[in-house]
Amino acid sequence: MKTFVTGGTGFVGGMVVRQLIQAGHTVRALVRPGSDLRQFKDLQVETVTGDLSITDSLRQGMQGCDWVFHVAALYSFWGHIWEEFYQSNVEGTRRVLQAAGEAGVQRIVYTSSIAALGLPMGDTPANEDTPVYMADKIGFYKHSKTLAEQVALDFARQGLPVVIVNPAAPVGVGDYKPTATGQMIVDFLNGRMFGYVDTGMNIVDVEDVAAGHLLAAERGRLGEKYILGGENLTLKGVLDLLSEVSGLPQVRLHIPHSVAFAWSYLDTALARLNPRHIPAATPDKVRLSRQKEYYDSSKAVRELGYTQTPVRQALRKAVEWYRDNGYAPMRGADNGL
User: Fold this and answer.
1) pLDDT tens, 272-281?
2) Which one from 110, 141, 295, 322 is the annotated catalytic residue?
3) Which CATH superfamily, name and number, covers 2-171+203-230+295-309?
4) Measured at the alpha carbon of residue 223, what is the angle toward residues 217 and 226, in degrees to the nearest 5?
5) Known catalytic residue: 141?
């Protein structure tokens, strides 16, 4: 298949590009001027210069393509206003899907997020059918991704061949930026993770997420959503596994949410005084930490044949990649699987 990919220079999108090529597909990727192209190292990728705001670049990129993977999104907790999130994530999605419809592509896989899904009830994982309430959405990113998913569902109802995937928190190789979850791992490896709050997350190997995208294109039911997750763990559980696979000491200090809130306001105040300082904690991130983001991927397993790498193995691969690429010192010893 000839495929068009947005967001291919990013963490998830880069792995989608790599797996598409490994599966024998041809890839054309949308890249912004000056983009970091390390994800395309050693890969045969045709590029089209443009961005989600330029409809002509989308049309040019999709010309003659069979599949479209819309992975690009603005994901940040600092330094962006609502209009930027709305234009990138909501209107950008609308432009991509409109162009895909005009191009007559056979299948579109839209990369949503667990951020657009309903919230779990305590420790009970949520799924694709859990009710979604905008009042529960904290921060510009979650709001925009929820609205963007509704755009995708609207297009699907109008007959566009769209399948939606909702990745959890990916870890693994190729996290150059790094992502928020990746930064947590990097901070741990560099001894900057002094404590933890009571929260939970779903950790998934980025290679599983990318494979899930291809499975969605091949087997997904049109208009359906599929959670691409791994294992549900408390933050303390994630940090303990990182300790095991890295050979570094455990993080033992439990930080109450009230203390984390106070620190987040101080950290963001410092960032406003020093534009080069990116806050490790923001009030929105602390509010989000009160919600355990536990999700159930059984629908993707059942309908797509989606498989999940054990989280310990995924974290081990991430640790090795960060160390090999200079994000953390080469010290400690992995204990094996």
Assistant:
1) 888 777 777 7
2) 141
3) NAD(P)-binding Rossmann-like Domain (3.40.50.720)
4) 65
5) yes
